[in-house]
Design a protein that fits this description.
Blueprint: E1 4-10, H1 22-25, H2 30-43, E2 46-52, H3 56-66, E3 72-76, H4 85-94, E4 98-102, E5 124-127, H5 132-145
Bound molecules: 1,3,4-trihydroxy-5-OXO-cyclohexanecarboxylic acid (DQA).
Residues 13, 76, 78-79, 81, 102-104, 106, 113 line the site of 1,3,4-trihydroxy-5-OXO-cyclohexanecarboxylic acid.
Length: 187
């Protein structure tokens, strides 16, 4: 049966999980986190895809392409959460239910992290639950969307975002093909 399609979109600095302060983020790498989310998504009947970028414009463009290609979004924009009006505007265009997730409890950290410019556009915000927060987000979406799925494949005239990880960085910025694929050994 066709499954609901969810895109899990990570923003700035989330590719550095495993190196970031473990008191807030634990030791899990982005790759391991995505693996866990993918397994939870399977269990809950979602087809999942993943995207990470450190470039705000690439994040915005990913949201531009989301309409019609995914049924739901899970977003952790990192620090952009707190000030990117551009990401907010793009999320409005996406037109699908979105859940905002933060690994850390942003309400208990610095003042500037307490503000989210996207939360009122989201059907829920989950913070401070570590990786399990993504499972909560999937469950929340499952509850809202029921089981009415769409085709797993993108319509022929509208190609899926080329492997979601492979959105091209600006030509002037040399980046490894897949920065999030670099696992950081946990100490
Ligand atoms: C974060 C919280 C943000 O304040 C921070 O800038 C991040 C990660 C989280 O997952 O807890 O990069 O979104």
């Amino acid at each position: 049966m066709a499954r609901l399609r969810v895109a899990v979109v990570h923003g700035v600095n989330l590719d550095q999980l495993g190196r970031r302060d473990p008191r807030h983020y634990g030791r899990v790498t982005l790759r391991e986190l995505e693996r866990r989310i993918q397994a939870w998504a399977e269990e809950l009947g979602f087809a999942s895809r993943f995207f990470h970028t450190n470039h705000e414009g690439a994040f915005v463009e990913y949201l531009h392409r989301a309409e019609g290609l995914v049924d739901a979004l899970i977003l952790n924009p990192g620090a952009w959460t707190h000030y990117s009006w551009a990401i907010r505007d793009a999320l409005e265009l996406a037109g699908v239910p979105a859940v905002e997730v933060h690994l850390s409890d942003v309400s208990q950290r610095e003042e500037w992290r307490r503000r989210s410019v996207i939360s009122d556009l989201c059907v829920g915000t989950i913070a401070g639950r570590g990786p399990d927060g993504y499972r909560d987000a999937l469950e929340l979406l499952r509850g809202r969307l029921g089981s009415a799925g769409h085709a797993d494949v993108a319509p022929a005239d509208q190609p899926a975002p080329a492997d979601d990880r492979s959105v091209q960085p600006p030509p002037s910025v040399p980046l490894p093909d897949d920065p999030s694929a670099t696992d950081v050994p946990s100490s």
